[in-house]
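name: query_chain
kind: protein
chains: 1
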Amino acid sequence: MGLRESMMAVIVRHKLLANQIPKGCTTPLEEWIAIKTRKTFKKSDELRKAIGKDNLDYVSREDFEKYQLYRVREQMRYAEENAPYYRHKFKDAGVRPEDIQTYEDLTKIPLTEPIDLAEKSMLFYGVSATKLLREFTTSGTTGHMKSIGYTQNDLISKIDIIASALRNLGMTKKDTLHVMFPMVMAWDPSLMLVGACNILGYKSSVCAEVDVEKQLSTIREAGATYIIGIPSFIYRVTTLLSKETDLTKLGIKKIISASEPLSESMRSLLQDAWGCKVVDVWGMTEFGLACAVECDEQNGLHTDEANMLLEIIDPETLEHVPMGQKGELVITALNAEGTVLIRYRTHDIAALIDPPCACGCHFNRRLMKPSGRMDLQFKIGNGHKVYPVLFDEAVYISPEVVDYHMDITREGYRDVLTFEVEADSQKEELAQSIVKAVSALMPVEDGIAEDLVAEPRVKLVPPNHKDYAIKVKKIRDLRENFD
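structure:
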């Protein structure tokens, strides 16, 4: 870092609430959320009145929910004054900030559609474009380009949560984070991660190469102890490297899976290959990288509830679903200055889990690992829904499998699922084991029983060592005139 960057790092480091987390804290992420809640509590008469306490040494779930509703009201006031999209949206809906006093009151606020953000990004800005420190563009999986603006305070907040998440994962200043994102993404997560590591005084290394040997040499040269990246890419690197290298001897303490759903079969294979735990992280460009992160219990992802309020709704009725039930994830940013998003439909299918957690967290709500996206679901047979992560569990059953894609076609009245599987082995036994595993999946099994889905077909092909495309569609629906 140059002198200017070093000075900025010192300033930002001084502002990080993560530095106030006590040494030896066993639940750093929840403690960071509590620190942020207490800071707001001290400044706000409205929040102290709502909670009804003189101090907040211990934050209960009930206290924290009142903090969140207070932040929703404050964000609505900010949006009314600064973000044209919401100024008109709230007026048309006849909803005011003071109307939101309970969790159920949130349904009074109209939902925000991703297509609106894509088509009217500037109307979501709470500051002028000249005051934004950074803008990211993303198409996600929808193909619609969205522009997300971050102010300096927004970026500091993102770095703060990344710092807390890394501490929650056990990382210290003695560790080195290896960032393994191929340079074929809509935006480069390594910029945020390396920047955060620099400010925190953590060591980091980056390799954006698809070449697996370059990944290995970078890990060795940097002395990396933690790895973060896209699970399908980490899995590909793992499969191709493990034939000649004992990865368990590299000293990796933990692998962090981000940007894609992580199937349990893939997690198991990665943990066996590297000899360490693999934990999941969930995030969106719209809200930052570390929106939710697993603890070592691997039973739900601890959420950044200080900056986000999460809801699960029925995508058809738009009403809240019971706790623990799956539905569409909806998020409200609670402290955003750049791009303001209130009740934003993510189209992710997920569920929420109430505390406590066996790791020791007592008020932080967890996110059940998102199982897919509404816009990446397909119907087969008599309306049975399938999605990529469902097939991951069945196809990644052997370390010989590197990657796969699947086409849905129709022959007569039956749907046909054809898998092209990259694998080191071309043995018929592997193909048949995949056919058997896919056929046992409930949507496929039911479709076969109804005689509306044909037996799955598997074509084994040698691994493609040079070309790699990230976030390409795992499933292609080639049926004509199909709803």
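note: DSSP finds 14 helices and 19 strands in the chain.
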